[in-house]
Design goal:
238 residues; alpha+beta; Alpha-Beta Plaits; 2 domains; four-stranded antiparallel sheet; two-stranded antiparallel sheet; 18% strand; elongated; Protein MgtC; cell membrane
């Protein structure tokens, strides 16, 4: 049998060490993601890590370092498709970017282990964990700092609460008012607010505004027949 002829205990032991390292380090990264209830948790990160490890390790044994380099290039691009699966768009909001980036790093950890760079794989794991845990307090501090709306890139939404029988009319006029103020609308979503009212939520194309101009446009919307309230909000973009 070819397996018996080609089996080398030293190569097998080397692969075992690489896979154990990839499994252990992927578990550390995945446990943090699982604890935070992210889309890609413990098992996903472990599988990404050991999968990347095995591909690189196999290339190392079959074609040497040059072959491993080529496989690493494919792992780097291929993991992007898996990462795209955990990114979700909800209206103007995008979720899952950090989880996708963590999967990418898990693949890098596995690739290092497969290339017999165990120490580098461990070091990268520490940096990934630090990025996902130690930077959170800094993010919260930065989010609480006052921002200049005209200078910060954000997602801006204008909302109007209107009587249901006037909703279609106000929807059309809402787009016109904002367009006249040079704030074109990307989309307008309608949500029921009880039996007699609807909320129209318009997401602006612009990522920066002049507060006085937007306030003037909202004031115009408040004067439309059937409108009971209007306002706007912003969310800082990722």
């Amino acid at each position: 049998m070819q397996f018996i002829d080609t089996f080398r205990s030293a190569d097998f032991l080397d692969t075992l060490v690489s896979l154990v390292a990839a499994f252990a380090l992927g578990t550390l990264i995945g446990a943090e993601r699982q604890w935070r209830q992210r889309t890609a948790g413990l098992r996903t990160n472990v599988l990404v890590s050991i999968g990347a490890c095995q591909f690189v390790d196999m290339a190392m044994h079959l074609a040497g370092p040059d072959g491993a380099v080529r496989v690493v290039a494919y792992v780097v691009s291929g993991i992007g498709f898996l990462g795209a699966g955990v990114i979700m768009k909800e209206g103007a909001n995008i979720r899952g970017l950090n989880t996708a980036a963590t999967l990418w790093c898990s693949a890098a950890v596995g690739a290092c282990a497969g290339a017999d760079l165990i120490a580098q794989a461990g070091l990268l794991t520490l940096f990934v964990l630090a990025g996902n845990t130690m930077l959170r307090p800094l993010v919260r501090v930065l989010e609480r700092l006052p921002h200049d709306i005209s200078a910060v890139e954000s997602t801006f939404e204008v909302f109007v609460v209107v009587r249901t029988e006037r909703a279609s009319e106000v929807r059309a006029k809402m787009a016109g008012v904002l367009q006249a103020a040079k704030y074109p609308v990307g989309e307008i979503e309608a949500t029921e607010r009880g039996e007699e009212h609807e909320e129209l939520n318009a997401t602006l194309v612009a990522t920066s505004v002049r507060v006085d101009e937007l306030n003037a446009a909202v004031a115009s919307l408040r004067q439309l027949p059937g409108v009971t309230s209007a306002g706007w909000m912003s969310r800082v973009a990722d």
